UniProtKB/TrEMBL annotation:
Residues 312-589 form the UvrD-like helicase C-terminal domain. This is ATP-dependent DNA helicase. Residues 24-311 form the UvrD-like helicase ATP-binding domain. It is an enzyme of class 5 (isomerase). SUPFAM superfamilies: P-loop containing nucleoside triphosphate hydrolases. Its EC number is 5.6.2.4. Belongs to the helicase family. UvrD subfamily. NCBIfam families: pcrA. GO terms for cellular component: cytosol; DNA helicase complex. GO terms for biological process: DNA replication; recombinational repair; response to radiation. Pfam families: PcrA_UvrD_tudor, UvrD-helicase, UvrD_C. Keywords: ATP-binding, DNA-binding, Helicase, Hydrolase, Isomerase, Nucleotide-binding. The lineage of its organism: Bacteria, Bacillati, Actinomycetota, Actinomycetes, Actinomycetales.
Length: 775
DNA sequence: TCTATGTCTACTAAT
DNA sequence: TAGACATAGA
């Protein structure tokens, strides 16, 4: 807030008084970034260098100096959380006028534009947004229609390839034209049909949101001009994570490729750090930030290297890890806040041992006034959270997992949202087919296939085909099926009518009630269904809260909101008092006083699937860099010598990233795991310590993994009864029987047993409640 | 058509 | 290990 003194002069225009205050406390580079005007600006912002401060102050400064009006500003981020934080911080600088800016994610900005310009897209304004699961479901249906063998042509792979196409702005026609192999041709064909199906359902997948906005702006000059006139200041956060489609979207918004003299290019600011680019797998390309000066020839670049977050020891470790990446723009973080504590290392025997160490360490940190809310634990893959959760439950430490099985991916939530989408968009085939027989209403595979075939033959949506069926236009449906269809159809229509003047929460109640969804769950004796009801109550709370924050928000707005929420959006604010567990990807952009980077093994981090490829390995290294630079005061690096995946224990060598860190910044509590020390008496002992030049090679990793793969369930074998043909047995529910045949041995043994009345059962002896009768 | 049971396969990362 | 899918029997 500006000091009150500046108001007293009376002479000074209000704006410039504010402006000066905004520059106070900035370092020279930050000052330069905030005050630069005219040409496109690239801010290369190292981790913790005050990036958000620069962005928010730059916006506020432009407003304060009268160079911009709030409604001329669009600031784009990748997560809603980042957007919310930015809006909040700008608001604290400039007051309520901040509400007139667009501060949002790429995806929600696009939805907003598409819903507004739906006539030119063209699409229904209440179009549905499909998440990855929905998209894969639709692709699976498409592949089925093409009669593709799912083993040879994997729908998931197809879905991924289509996503890649869209991120590159490649249309189905382009894809068909450039297809060489049969496989590529099949993909191109599936892509075309998949897109047709989306269009018919009035739906878009995540990638469409960007691609179709770009197409909208490119193909409709008058629409493009509207937005260019409006957005005179375009700011993009995390620019290193943009893919080609997003890059083109920014260009289109700025007007960089437009000769239209009526609207000069907008003022563009991008902020990013190529060392933190970790989304190549979804099409992001570092090229965009590295070539910014070529893309925008008169661009100005500012580099922020002073770090205000971490201690020097932490930065030294992070710098050492990232410096192994070839061809990066030289950049070295530094701080003037002192060395701080050393990085602490620990080599555990297993993932359970690792979890134990982490828990006990957090426990003892409490004596130094470190609270659980100050601590975060990172891992490479979601599955790693389990061992940690187990120990926290056992020790009673409060924790919270961010991501993983996400709220909006739960079955019951997806079902409920499918109902809502079916209400809002009667042509949404994926959603309607999802709930067609949920809860069970006697509409099985056959009914679905008949309706779907009719829809296909008449080129109408699945929803329209249901209406046709109810009108008696589809022959060959049993009376019982017709009744079920009529009821289903009536349910949707009734709720649709109700929905015209009801809030999202009320509509949700109505549809869950009228469809019998909640009643079915309540009647179930599956204990899981109890928590499902609770989750639906939670969804209701979300809908009710939505109405509070957005009194005019209709069902479409609500669906838009929930379609685009991200994992990171649910991160608790500051001191929720819980330990935070999440993947490194989710951790980007956050910071914590104490950080545990766990699973530092070759094969886990870097991930086994990235180890053989130089560019993927480089991305893993950037990911490690992100992990390390989240820590403010204390950083722990832990690894497990043995880790189980799919119930199979594997031995894993230390991560190569550990070897890169200078010895003098690490304090090893335990450098060699117990099992390794034992092993090293019979093998070369120096191999397992790092700092001694050991770098695990891929072939080593593989061999060790194979050797460590041992089945873990053999103790059951002794309790399996030994049977042979002719033996009499007693089964808990089938009663008395005679063994006809036994196949397989021990653990895999299966017996065919005749229980009389011609009832021959095949029973897994491992599980069957079977007693051998003597005599 | 539904349900239970057994079998198969998958764990990168996520807007 | 677990969830997704196939199959058989009711």
């Amino acid at each position: 807030m500006p000091p009150s003194a500046v108001w007293e002069s009376g002479e000074v225009p209000e704006a410039s008084a504010d402006a000066d205050a905004l520059l106070a406390g900035l370092n020279p580079q930050q000052h330069e970034a905030v005050t630069h005007t005219g040409s496109p600006l690239l801010v290369v912002a190292g981790a913790g260098s005050g990036k958000t401060k620069v962005l928010t102050h730059r916006i506020a400064y432009a407003l304060a100096t009268g160079r911009a009006r709030a409604d001329q500003v669009i600031a784009i981020t990748f997560t809603n959380k980042a957007a919310a934080e930015m809006r909040e911080r700008v608001r604290s600088l400039v007051g309520p006028q901040a509400n007139r800016m667009w501060v949002s994610t790429f995806h929600s900005a696009c939805v907003r534009i598409l819903r507004r310009e739906y006539r030119d897209v063209p699409i229904r304004s209440t179009f549905s947004v499909y998440d990855m699961q929905d998209a894969q479901r639709l692709m699976a249906l498409t592949c089925k229609r093409l009669n593709l063998d799912p083993k040879q042509f994997n729908p998931k792979l197809f879905s991924r390839r289509v996503s890649d196409f869209k991120n590159e702005l490649i249309t189905p026609a382009d894809a068909a034209a450039q297809a060489r192999t049969d496989f590529e041709k099949k993909i191109a064909e599936a892509y075309r049909l998949y897109n047709d199906a989306l269009q018919q359902a009035h739906a878009m997948d995540f990638d469409d949101l960007i691609m179709r906005t770009v197409q909208l702006l490119q193909n409709n000059p008058q629409v493009a001009r509207t937005y260019r006139r409006r957005f005179r200041h375009v700011l993009v956060d995390e620019y290193q994570d943009t893919n080609h489609a997003q890059y083109m979207l920014v260009r289109a918004l700025v007007g960089a490729d437009d000769d239209d003299a009526g609207v000069p290019p907008a003022e563009l600011t991008v902020v990013g750090d190529s060392d933190q680019s970790i989304y190549a797998f979804r099409g992001a390309t570092i090229r965009n930030i590295e070539e910014f000066e070529k893309d925008y020839p008169d661009a100005h670049t500012v580099v922020l290297e002073q770090n205000y977050r971490s201690t020097q020891n932490i930065l030294s470790a992070a710098n050492a890890v990232i410096s192994a990446n070839a061809g990066r723009r030289a950049k070295r973080l530094w701080t003037d806040s002192g060395d701080g504590a050393k990085v602490i290392g620990y080599a555990a025997d297993s993932e359970h041992d690792e979890a134990r160490f982490i828990a006990s360490e957090i426990d003892s940190l409490a004596t130094e006034n470190v609270k659980p809310g100050d601590v975060a634990i990172f891992y490479r893959t979601n599955a790693q959270s389990r061992a940690l959760e187990e120990i926290f439950i056992r020790t009673g430490l409060p924790y919270r997992v961010v991501g993983g099985t996400r709220f909006y991916e739960r079955k019951e939530i997806k079902d409920a949202l499918a109902y809502l989408r079916a209400i809002a968009n009667p042509d949404d085939s994926v959603s309607i087919r999802r709930i067609f027989n949920t809860p069970r209403r006697g509409l099985g595979d056959k009914a679905e296939a008949t309706v779907a075939a009719y829809a296909h033959d008449h080129d109408i949506s699945f929803g329209a085909a249901i209406a046709a069926a109810v009108d008696g236009d589809i022959p060959g449906l049993a009376p019982r099926t017709m009744n079920a269809l009529r009821d289903f159809h009536a349910t949707l229509n009734e709720v649709r009518e109700f929905a015209t003047d009801a809030s999202p929460a009320e509509i949700l109640d109505a549809v869950l009630d009228r469809s019998g969804y909640v009643a079915t769950l309540r009647a179930s004796d599956d204990p899981q269904d109890e928590s499902r009801v609770e989750n639906l109550a939670e969804l209701h709370a979300v809908a009710a809260e939505f109405r509070e924050t957005q009194p005019d928000g209709d069902l479409g707005d609500f669906l838009e909101r929930v379609a685009l929420v991200a994992d990171s959006d649910s991160i608790p604010d500051d001191d929720a008092g819980q330990i935070t567990l999440m993947t490194v990807h989710t951790a980007k952009g956050l910071e914590f006083p104490v950080v545990f980077a766990s699973g530092m093994e070759d094969g886990t981090f870097p991930h086994a699937r990235s180890i053989d490829d130089a560019s993927q390995l480089a991305e893993e290294r950037r990911l490690a860099y992100v992990a390390l630079t989240r820590a403010r005061e204390r950083l722990y690096l832990t690894r497990a010598a043995v880790r189980s995946a799919w119930g199979m224990p594997q031995q894993l060598p230390p991560s190569r990233f550990l070897a890169a860190i200078p010895e003098e910044v690490v304090d090893w509590r335990r450098e060699v795991a117990g099992a390794e020390a034992f092993r090293s008496t019979s093998e070369t002992s120096s191999r397992l310590s790092f700092g001694s030049g050991y770098r695990p090679k891929t072939s080593d990793t593989r061999r060790v993994q194979r050797a460590g793969a041992v089945r873990a369930t053999e103790k059951d074998e002794e309790t399996i009864p030994s049977l042979e043909a002719g033996v009499r047995v007693l089964h808990d529910s089938y009663g008395l029987g005679t063994v006809l045949e036994v196949t397989g041995q021990g653990w895999r043994a299966v017996a065919s047993v005749d229980f009389g009345d011609g009832a021959v059962k095949k029973l897994m002896l491992r599980y069957a409640p079977l007693t051998k009768l003597d005599v």
